[in-house]
Specification:
This protein is an alpha/beta fold and 212 residues long. The chain is 50% helix and 10% strand.
């Protein structure tokens, strides 16, 4: 009887180990990708392919994260929060991301949209992401002084308050240390150079790493 009991225990232990070994790859593969939803700042505008901060992010995740998730760059030059809001449901359905990075707002400001409109679009995206089970990291923007202090403050406050209300991560100013810096901005004064891309990644990484 003791022999039979010990044998049964050994068989059960082997079965559990086998089940665990079979399940582990499934769990590793179940993690959704990191989805980047942005504009030309994330779409490698006028810089060599593969040199943008999203490409650098993919390589860093592969090097530093166990069972690294895939990085999907759904950024489009000229994108606005309204355009991204239209595209987001299909992107969430297709990719089922675990983390969503939202880098948007610059084109809204350039087109003179009110901070209230920008905020409303961002908030709807946050709700969609939450419903899809994705964590969110917001990459905030700023605008030149000629927009006026009131407009700039409303923009900054929009990102900060949305982050707090929806428990989303926040990078207050995505272009910190890059905007207005010689050699780091292209001739148009709007887009970072290839040289600036590692700095953009360093701005994002500390806020993103805990979400991974």
């Amino acid at each position: 009887m003791r022999f039979e009991t010990g044998s049964m225990r050994r068989r059960l232990a082997c079965a559990l180990l086998l089940a665990g070994s079979l399940l582990a790859p499934v769990l590793a593969c179940a993690r959704g990708p990191v989805l980047v939803l942005g504009d030309s700042l994330s779409a490698e505008h006028n810089i060599p392919a593969g040199s943008g901060w999203v490409s650098l992010l993919e390589r860093r995740i592969a090097a530093e994260v166990a069972s690294p998730p895939k990085v999907v760059n759904a950024s489009i030059s000229g994108e606005t929060t309204a355009g991204a809001l239209v595209r987001l449901p299909a992107l969430l359905e297709k990719h089922r991301p675990s983390v969503l990075l939202i880098e948007l707002g610059g084109n809204d400001a350039l087109r003179g949209l009110s901070p209230a409109q920008l905020r409303g679009n961002l908030e709807r995206m946050l709700v969609l992401a939450d419903d899809a089970g994705a964590k969110v990291l917001l990459l905030g923007i700023d605008v030149p002084p000629n927009y006026g202090p009131a407009y700039r403050e409303r923009l900054r406050r929009s990102y900060a308050e949305l982050s707090a209300a929806h428990a989303a991560g926040l990078v207050p100013f995505f272009l910190e240390g890059v905007a207005l810096q010689p050699g780091l901005m292209q001739a148009d004064g709007l887009h970072p150079t290839a040289k600036a891309q590692p700095r953009l990644l360093e701005n994002v990484w500390p806020a993103l790493e805990p979400l991974l």
